[in-house]
UniProtKB/TrEMBL annotation:
E.C. no: 2.7.13.3
Organism domain of life: Bacteria
Protein's organism: Pollutimonas bauzanensis
Residues in Histidine kinase domain copies: 45-263
Principal location class: membrane
Reactions catalysed according to its record: ATP + protein L-histidine = ADP + protein N-phospho-L-histidine
Full protein name: Phosphate regulon sensor protein PhoR
Region of the whole protein represented: 164 to 430 of 430
Amino acid sequence: LQNDGQEKSLLVQLTPYGVGQFLIVTRDVTQVEKLETTRKDFVANVSHELRTPLTVLSGFLETLRDMPAESLSGEQKARYQNLMLEQAQRMQAIVADLLTLSTLESSPTAGGEPVRMGSVIRNALQQGHILSNGQHVFVENIAEDLCITGVETELASAVSNLLTNAIRYTPKDGTITVSWYLTEDGHACYSVQDTGIGIASQDIPRLTERFYRVDRGRSRATGGTGLGLAITKHVAMRHNADLTIHSRFGAGSLFSLVFPPARVSLA
Ligand code: ADP
C-alpha cells in the first residue's frame, strides 16, 4: 500500500493456501469506512432536524386537545395555528431541499442550454423574501449578454441561495453587492459580497456540508434548512464551476461561483 501520509483502515485476511502455507490479503477500506460514517451522520442529522419541528407540533396539538375549547380566545387559537403552520412549513422546506440534493447527486454533470444569467439574477432579486430586511443591495456590473450552458432552474437556485444567505447573515443597514461579469481569462463569475457577520476561518471548509451551520439558532430563526450551500456546491459541480468563499469574522463575506470558459457564451 502506498503511504500517502493519511491514516488508513486496513482489512487483513489470513487464508489457508496449500500445505503449511497461508495467503495474506490486505485491503484498504479507508474510503468505505469514511462513506459509512458520512451515511450514518447524515441519517442522524436528518432525523434530528425533522424531530425538532415534529416535537413542537405534537406539543401544540396535545395542548389544544387537552384544553377545554371555551378557555381559548380567538387570538390564542390563531397564534397556535400559526406556530403549528410554521413547523409544518419548516419540515416541508427540509424535505424539498433533501429531494433537490438527491436529484442533483444522481448525475454528475449538467447538460442544458445557454442561460442568460443576467435575467436569472434580476428575477432572484425581485423575489419578495430576498429583499425584505432593510439591507442595501447594489447590483454592480451585470453582463447582460453573458450566458452559461446549463440547467436554468439549478442555476437560479444557486443564485438565490447566495443572495438569501447574504440577507440572512447581514444586519439591517448592511450592504450587499451583486456582480456578474466575464474575467480576463474567459471565466464567468457571479459574486455576492456582504458586510454581514462573517465566518471564522475554521468554519469555512465545513459550510457546504449538509446541515452544517455556524449558529444553529440564527439559521433556524431566519428559516434556513442548513442545506442551501450543499445544494449550491452540487449545482456548481454539475456545471464544472467552483464555489469560492472568502470571509472575515465580524466583517463580511464574499461568495463566488466561477464558471469555466467551456460553459461560457455570449447571446
Ligand atoms: P442555512 O440554511 O443555515 O443558511 P446554508 O447551507 O445556506 O444553510 O449555510 C450554512 C451556514 O453557513 C449558515 O448556517 C451560516 O452559518 C453560514 N453562512 C452562509 N452564508 C453566510 C454569509 N453570507 N455570512 C455569514 N455566514 C454565512
